Inverse folding.
């Protein structure tokens, strides 16, 4: 696909998703009515599909009023399902689990064991009479845990903590865990997600940490090297990352006499490195850019230490880890105003960076480069947002739930960290400590279908 056509299609999708203005509410109401009509058609398959429509509509955040009606629909259906009445909701969850398992086994070299101790991490061991704790990160793993393993056997021993990799809790990947009897914690600091899960009044509860709280600050680079890159963007080669919008800004700055040196760090997603480089050539800024693909965390950190400003220009994210890694390299960040659901994340502040409207990106980059000395992002993160603090927050919530239910709590959580590819222990020796727990998880793997 030519860069021009790619930009046209991406911009059109973006407009439909984000820029319909006053049309958003009537469109949401029309889709809601269509889903309700499909649900009333009768077949189990159509009822499941109707709930899938409603969840996707809610994720789009088109209309607060319609979102509230969707939450009520799911609340009522969940209550009916718990009483044994089929509504299509549980059928949707089963469909999503089955599809996830099929996709997993269709991939090259599928091995469920690779999830154990990486994407599924024990942070408190099980002992007779006292529950352990599992943290499951990345949204795609949530239905796999339910499909590849005996989830009931796991839930009988462990409290589950879900760490989503995408914003929006109205998704079957998360909501399928409402079928369990015990509490399941969902990490999110998004007010919209927290309000939605509270409205459902199920076993799903939120805890105010997120995926980007778990960055290992010990992996931050040594500082003091010359910062020869004006701007760095650490982002997958993906349409949602909006490289083309960033390149358009670089082209405008170039016309104004500012030729910035840029580092792009990414990996293949729905675009390739060549696609992104073609977009840069389309805007005439390719000679200002160096691209780096699938490099190690140490190499990413080294590039961050050479950079002055980090840009995140997506319109929808979850808890972006790259901006925290940038802050730990003492790089202030620019984030697009209105990101995701518009919540002003407290970690974007006068010490760490700025929210910037679309049309002000170029000027904001120049201003931040000129005023770098007034920011202290690394210090702010170390004081306010470390994996140790996240562990303490999570542990306090789990302990409170255990005490409230009369369950024992004699041991706390170990500290863990997260990267793009895996979760790890702060202390590597903890992996051996939990060997019996991992043996149990391996023992409850289901046979390959």
């Amino acid at each position: 696909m030519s860069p021009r056509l790619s930009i046209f299609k991406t911009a059109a999708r973006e407009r439909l998703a984000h820029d319909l203005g006053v049309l958003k509410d009537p469109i949401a109401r029309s889709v809601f009515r269509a889903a309700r009509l499909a649900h009333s058609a009768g077949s189990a398959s159509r009822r499941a599909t109707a709930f899938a429509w409603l969840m996707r509509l809610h994720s789009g955040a088109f209309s607060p009023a319609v979102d509230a009606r969707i939450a009520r629909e799911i609340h009522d259906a969940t209550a009916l399902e718990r009483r044994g009445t089929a509504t299509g909701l549980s059928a949707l969850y089963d469909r999503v689990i089955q599809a996830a398992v099929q996709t997993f086994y269709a991939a090259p070299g599928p091995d469920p064991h690779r999830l154990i101790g990486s994407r599924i991490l024990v942070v408190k061991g099980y002992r007779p009479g006292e529950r352990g704790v599992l943290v499951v990160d990345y949204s795609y793993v949530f239905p796999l845990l339910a499909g590849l393993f005996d989830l009931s056997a796991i839930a009988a021993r462990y409290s589950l903590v879900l760490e989503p990799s995408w914003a929006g809790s109205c998704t079957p990947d998360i909501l399928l865990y409402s079928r369990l009897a015990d509490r399941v914690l969902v990490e999110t600091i998004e007010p919209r997600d927290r309000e939605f899960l509270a409205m459902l009044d199920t076993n799903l509860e939120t805890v105010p940490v997120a995926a980007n709280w778990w960055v290992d600050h010990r992996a931050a680079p040594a500082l003091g090297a010359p910062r020869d890159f004006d701007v760095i963007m650490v982002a997958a080669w993906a349409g949602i990352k909006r490289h083309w919008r960033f390149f358009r800004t670089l082209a405008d700055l170039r016309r104004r006499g500012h030729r910035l040196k840029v580092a792009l760090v990414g990996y293949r997603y729905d675009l390739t490195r060549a696609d992104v480089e073609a977009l840069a050539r389309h805007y005439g800024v390719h000679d200002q850019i160096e691209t780096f693909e699938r490099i190690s965390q140490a190499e990413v950190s080294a590039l961050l230490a050479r950079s002055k400003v980090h840009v995140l220009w997506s319109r929808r994210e979850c808890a972006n880890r790259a901006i925290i890694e940038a802050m730990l390299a003492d790089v202030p960040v620019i984030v697009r105003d209105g990101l995701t659901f518009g919540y002003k994340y407290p970690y974007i502040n006068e010490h760490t960076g700025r929210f910037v409207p679309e049309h002000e990106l170029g000027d904001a980059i120049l201003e931040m480069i000129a005023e770098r000395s007034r920011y202290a992002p690394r210090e702010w993160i170390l004081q306010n947002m470390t994996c140790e603090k996240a562990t303490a927050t999570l542990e306090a919530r789990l302990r409170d739930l255990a005490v409230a239910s009369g369950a024992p709590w004699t041991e706390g959580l170990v500290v863990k960290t997260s990267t793009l590819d895996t979760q790890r222990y702060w202390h590597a020796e903890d992996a051996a400590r939990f060997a019996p727990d991992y043996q149990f998880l391996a023992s409850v793997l289901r046979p390959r279908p």
